[in-house]
Design goal:
Shape: globular
Largest sheet: none
Radius of gyration: 19 Å
């Protein structure tokens, strides 16, 4: 569906002499990213509205998207699978945030363990390169440093929020954790392919 929409937009621009024929594929790819981003945002907003957690869902989207740009991690092979897995993961993170926030069973010690684990995974493995978007050495170094700094800053903010905004603190910790898990999934998958 995303590819079809992107193709229609690109062909419309070509037919109206806005772009040249050799640029159609470039524009299609750009529109695929834009449309996919719009779908992902709508998915998060719908989940936020459904769970009555709109502000937290927006916070989640910002943190998750920003981190993933730097760290990389698991990518589905189609836009449908990508949006489906993103929706499921996002729903689970937001529901878990709500459950843990209400019952106050989530202690600071558990929170610190999540943050430590996530930050260590990011320090050791980020960025995970996507075969479709190879990085040069300079970009890898930059992403590595930015990933580490982001994880440390988010961990510090999360700890600072633990007493004043419990839900946001939990959400940040769980978001860091899921990003770390998506990194590990790719690493384990690649290790299995090497055997």
């Amino acid at each position: 569906m995303i590819t079809a929409i992107s193709k229609r937009i690109s062909l419309f621009l070509y037919k109206n002499n806005v772009i040249d024929s050799e640029d159609i594929e470039i524009y299609m790819y750009g529109f695929e990213i834009i449309v996919s981003t719009i779908f992902a945002t709508l998915i998060i907003l719908a989940i936020g509205i459904l769970l009555r957690m709109v502000a937290l869902s927006i916070l989640y989207l910002i943190i998750f998207s920003s981190l993933r740009q730097m760290t990389g991690g698991y990518h589905a092979d189609t836009y449908f699978k990508c949006n489906l897995s993103f929706g499921i993961i996002s729903f689970c993170i937001l529901v878990l945030t709500r459950i843990l926030s209400q019952d106050h069973v989530y202690s600071l010690n558990i929170h610190l363990l999540f943050l430590l684990f996530s930050t260590l995974v990011i320090i050791v493995y980020a960025p995970v390169e996507n075969p479709n978007k190879p990085l040069d050495e300079k970009q890898k170094r930059k992403n590595h440093i930015c990933s580490i700094l982001s994880a440390i800053i988010l961990s510090a903010v999360s700890c600072a929020c633990f007493t004043c905004n419990y839900s946001a603190s939990i959400l940040i910790g769980l978001t860091l954790f899921i990003v770390a898990m998506l990194i590990l999934i790719v690493k384990m998958k690649r290790k299995g392919e090497e055997k």
